[in-house]
Amino acid sequence: MNRKCYLLCALIAWSMRSLPLFGEEIKSGSGFIFQPDGYILTNNHVIADSREQTIVLSNGSRLPAKIIATDPDKDLALLKIEGSRYPTLPIGQSRSMNVLDTVVAMGFPMYSKIGYDVSAYDGKINAIRRSEHTPLLQIDANINPGNSGGPLLNDRGEVIGIVVAKINAMELAKTMGAIPERINFAIPIDEARSMILIAYPGGFTPSKRTTPLRDQEIFSESKDATVLILAPKKVQTLDEQARGTQGSLSNGPPPAVPNEPNSATVAMKPSLLAFVQAFVASGASDRIDSVMQFYAPTVNYFDKGIVDSAFIRNDVTEFRRRWLRRKYELLSDPVAHAGGRPDQYVVTYRAGFVLGDRRDETRGTSNVTVVIQDDDGTYSIVAIQENVQNDDALVR
């Protein structure tokens, strides 16, 4: 790996963590103003468990924000800052968007290292995925930590989505020498209508833009209404810290996969469900990176024990070499349980598969259990196990 790539990967890996500020941790995210009186939309996970919220405007001003409403299921939050006559973004209609439509994502990735200037990333909608609480737009615009909550714009500069999550492929770059293909997500703006109506009790006027804009025009007209959000975490008492020490260690080996999850089920967040759906679908891809990007750098991997990314890559390569034709589908809705740590989920699901080589074909079902790490909306698999049924030929 050359020095330039190494430095980039080191920077990305550093930015995956919350930022310490005078002995406390501070999360950052993005948002956008959609009403002149200072109403702001963002992700709920950006401000969850924070003791206060500070909005940094494009001119550098810092203003305290008040939480008006939250929807943890949809991962949405509505904030308000005092004042008036703020620049705003027009609200579009996500239901009018289609796969392969062009989009632009705005936000403040890694602001403490690369600065306070807003960034823009172009891309396309790759899929529209369904979930229990809300659909999600799968996009290939480049998303990094800090982009969460930022606006996703159509070719007229209208907000049609709110950036919510990405697959954790960045740590893999250090061992693979390249960043895998992008799979990122945004919440359709139509899912935020109820929150928008809080700011516009009498109903808001939909955008009347009809003419597509150049990317530079979209950026110019959107940057002042896109804001940085700083959210220091709540300070734990000594008793809380003592009780939480054992369950919150970030180092150590990956967790074991429980034979039977014994914790109560928890809400399946739309972004978590989309992550699982995309992971299942990636099994049919011929590109190794399409599945590699789902795994953490170290994984408790099937019956192989704790392995690194190089081992997984070799295993996936051999599996695809053995089975040239692969088809997978979910046979049950994934169910999430609380994991051994507050930032982990144990997810179970049943999948069907059809595998074939040049001569033979085998079919079967598999009960899969995965432990998924949640780093502020960025997911990665840290442990996986399966119980294959109705098939004698499948060997991993």
Describe this structure in words.
There is one protein chain. The chain is of the alpha+beta class. It has two domains: 3-232, Thrombin, subunit H (Beta Barrel); 252-389, Nuclear Transport Factor 2, Chain: A. The chain has helices spanning 3-15, 44-47, 111-114, 173-176, 193-199, 215-222, 238-244, 270-282, 289-292, 309-322, and strands at residues 19-21, 24-35, 39-42, 54-56, 62-71, 76-81, 102-107, 119-129, 136-139, 151-153, 159-167, 184-188, 226-232, 265-266, 295-301, 306-308, 325-330, 335-338, 344-356, 361-375, 378-389. The chain has a six-stranded antiparallel beta barrel with strand order 2-3-6-5-4-13. A hairpin with a 5-residue loop joins strand 4 (54-56) and strand 5 (62-71). The chain is globular and about 65 Å long.
User: What amount of the residues lies in strands?
Assistant: 35-45%
Q: What is the overall pLDDT average?
A: 80
Shape: globular
Q: Determine the fraction of residues in helical runs and give it as a percent range.
A: 10-25%
Distance between the termini: 30 Å
Q: CATH topology of the largest domain, anyone?
A: Thrombin, subunit H
Largest sheet: 6 strands, antiparallel, barrel
- The top-level CATH class of the largest domain is Mainly Beta
Q: Give the uncertain stretches in residue-range form.
A: 1-23, 168-179, 237-251, 392-396
> What structural category characterises the helix and strand content?
alpha+beta
As for the number of domains, it is: 2
* Number of helices, where a helix is a run of at least 4 consecutive DSSP H or I residues: 10
CATH architecture verdict of the largest domain: Beta Barrel
